[in-house]
Amino acid sequence: VAKIVLAAQLARWLPADGGERETAWQCAGDSVREVLDALFVQCPTLRGYVLDERGKIRRHVAVFVDGTALSHHSDLGEPLGGHAEVHVLQALSGG
Amino acid sequence: MSDTILVSTRKGLFVLERGVQPWSVKQTAFLGDNVALSLADPRDGAWYAVLDLGHFGNKLQRSRDRGVTWQEIAVPAFGDAEQVITGDGKPPLPATLRLIWALEAGGPDQPGRLWAGTIPGGLFRSDDHGDSWHLVRGLWDRPERLGWFGGGYDQPGIHSICVDPRDARCVSVGISTGGVWHTQDGGDTWAQGASGMRAEYLPPEQSFDPHKQDVHHMVQCPAAPDTLWVQHHNGVFRSDNGGTQWHEVENVPPSVFGFAVAVHPREPGTAWFVPARKDQARVPVEARVVVARTRDRGRSFDVLREGLPQEQAYDLTYRHALAVDRSGDRLAFGTTTGGFWISEDQGDRWQMLSARLPPVYAVSFA
Lengths: 95, 366
What we know:
The structure holds two protein chains of two kinds.
Chain A: E1 2-6, H1 8-11, E2 24-27, H2 32-42, H3 47-50, E3 61-65, E4 68-69, E5 85-90
Parallel strand pairs in A: 1-5
Antiparallel strand pairs in A: 1-2, 3-4, 3-5
Chain B: E1 4-9, E2 12-17, E3 24-29, E4 35-40, E5 47-53, E6 57-63, E7 71-73, E8 83-84, E9 93-94, E10 99-105, E11 114-119, E12 123-126, E13 134-135, H1 137-140, E14 157-163, E15 171-176, E16 179-183, E17 191-192, E18 215-220, E19 228-232, E20 235-239, E21 247-249, E22 258-263, E23 271-275, E24 291-294, E25 302-304, E26 322-324, E27 331-334, E28 340-343, E29 351-352, E30 360-365
Antiparallel strand pairs in B: 1-2, 1-30, 2-3, 4-5, 5-6, 6-7, 8-9, 10-11, 11-12, 12-13, 14-15, 15-16, 16-17, 18-19, 19-20, 20-21, 22-23, 23-24, 24-25, 26-27, 27-28, 28-29
């Protein structure tokens, strides 16, 4: 299980369903790909904000795993540690 | 006349309404977000807004209550195998959606059909009000597409879509930079239609190559659909035969350069342009904002300036930012510096909106 933390700028696009928009999620999976997929099951519209239509991390989105930024060319299937923390942020570029 | 105008800006969608005060901002949506384009579907009254979120990609929103509530819907997407190959020597890249650059409603007999033009040059069709989109392969798979290239953007794009009111299966698209293409069967097969257009920016022997014409914007007269007008990178062109053959209109004052064009809904010979100094400069000629209008198919033009700033004005009007309403009398345009003007008399006199808007990308009557 990993903890995924979404930037507020990203969480604001989630449906609120009448309540607060969550910025922190617990998601099961053994890789970044799996935990993100688990998150996208709960928040289907979020996928297109984080990944492009080919499943690549968007050019101006940054993903940190336990404090280290993933390369946009990195393999999202690499194994995650037991209690990883994944932060999904907007990169300080573009936009 | 239409009393509602949708203004898509760098910082949100602004809904202008005519009330006791002549015109004012009635409501906003997506304030702070980049709204590239909007559409009011004349068939069912639905509104659509293209959000070009810098970090998170393009999104589409739909409102069925005139902007009170919005719902995110699907966006066009390219398949894994699709590539953008261009005719200007850039290396091939995977095709991914860069911008929804055109959005139009299908015919009255095609409820739910929408067309979306995109950068990097894909045309998409929806038959369910935008809940799903399909790449129009008949155009995408044309070998000539590989010769298209970007105009102002890195990749080619479809910015103009004209659906023929006589037969909604007949659709024409304008491409920067790839000329004009027509289908008569709803998108299955396509034919090039930019003969007569001339590109100054090419080597002379290629200047009439229809595939390399940088169409900035194309419009079709609803009541006389065989007449289309194009504002092109280095000129203005008119077609009298449904967009197959084009005639250059060389005498547009004060400049043949510009982005925007509008055509009167019933009088095919009446069209408006917002010229600018070509083409690296892109500011008003002599810092005066003017609109050029012809009423005789381009033989002569009026330069309309009453109510428009005539000194120290550096407003540029983008391709989707000039609109005419169904009456043909009311026009509106907005600019990169947030200027916004409305005319009730075909452009003879203009009234400035008192609001100071963000940079304006697109204007449409709802």
